[in-house]
Amino acid sequence: xxxxxxxxxRILFLxxxxxxxxxxxxxxxxxxxxxxxxxxxxxxxxxxxxNTWAQEAAANADLGTKQIFEALxxxxxxxYGRFDTEMxxxxxxxxxxxxxxxxxxxxxPPAAGGQGT
Length: 117
Description:
Blueprint: H1 2-13, H2 32-59, H3 63-93, H4 96-106
Helix pairs in contact: 2-3
């Protein structure tokens, strides 16, 4: 959601109006491999869209918006890399990998202020 917030703030700054609606129906996926596959697909599409919009912002001499999209592209590429690594681990270690991740995650102490991660 942070991406949406940043973009909404920019739109408002530029004098536009923000209307938030879902762009596609939300599907329920319960299989981890399907979830990761869908997540990777969504990251790739976001990267393509953000690149297109960064180029459009540059063509309109809007450096601030272009920089926002470039930052979002970097974040999406990082997300894609994480999902890709998880897919590789899932393929290599099977469903037990996810259980091990959950157990390991439960050993991590909560962040300062008692708010968990």
